[in-house]
Every structure is written in C-alpha cells, then in structure tokens.
Write a structure and sequence with these properties.
mainly alpha, about 80% helix
C-alpha cells in the first residue's frame, strides 16, 4: 500500500472518529504531496512522497522549537502533535549504529579522507537515509567521522 493510499485510509478513520487534530495533519500531508505532484506534473514515487513528509517533519520540529523559545507552548504542542502523526507514515528511523555503518560504507565508497570531502560523502549518504534519519544528525555524524 502506497503512502498516498495509507493517508486516504487514515483520513477516513479520522473522520469517522471525529479526531480533528489528526484529520488536519493528514489533510496537510495529502495536500503537500498533491502540490509536489502538480509541480512535477507526474505521480510521486514512494521515495518522493517520503521526501515530502521528511520536509514536513523538519518544518514541524523547527516550528515547535521556535514556539518553545517564544513562549507559545500551545502552538508548540500543536506542532509536536502533527509531528507524531507525520512520523507514523514514514519508514522506521535508523539507529545510530545503522547510521554509522551507512556513513562508513559511503566514506569507503568515495575515498573521503578529510572534512573537504564532506559534500561527496553527504551526496552518497543522504539518499540512503532520507525519511529515516534527521539530516542534521547525519551531517554531524559525517563531520565527526571525517574530522577524527
């Protein structure tokens, strides 16, 4: 079952359950995917849909952090609730050990030796971790590996 089909089923369930916050988050995800399809003028692959949802996750995290700093706990909680719903539709997150294995493989594949090669390694690692790990964490792990 594709992400779009799963979203449609979840939307129906949320409507029946009268779960307004969940329904709102699901509609937002469907809209973001549909907008990307319209922009690209083709149906999205599973990987592209995961990429869209990953972007939404990043946006929610940043918004929640900004609301916490601004003292708007009510809005921060709303963003965090949406984040939980979005993450239900993403593949399971990679553990640090799995990330390190992917990074080691990428370093060996690219022959990277220093921080100058960060871009090369990230170019290989990013497609393998999209939707399954936070880009900021991946970047920090790659930098640590190349620096040490």
């Amino acid at each position: 079952m594709t992400i779009q089909e799963r979203l449609m089923e979840a939307m129906k369930e949320a409507m029946k359950a009268k779960d307004a916050p969940r329904l709102s988050a699901i509609r937002m995800m469907r809209t973001a995917i549909r907008n990307r399809e319209i922009d690209s003028r083709q149906d999205l692959s599973a990987q592209d849909a995961i990429s869209v949802l990953s972007t939404l996750v990043k946006q929610r995290r940043e918004s929640a952090e900004a609301y916490h700093q601004g003292g708007r706990e009510d809005l921060a909680v709303k963003e965090e609730q949406e984040l939980v719903v979005i993450q239900e539709f993403l593949p399971s997150q990679l553990g640090e050990g799995e990330l390190r294995e992917i990074i080691e493989a990428a370093v060996a594949e690219t022959g990277a030796a220093s921080l100058k090669d960060l871009g090369k390694v990230m170019k290989v690692v990013s497609p393998r971790t999209v939707g399954r790990a936070d880009g900021r964490v991946v970047s920090e792990l790659v930098k640590a590996r190349l620096a040490g």
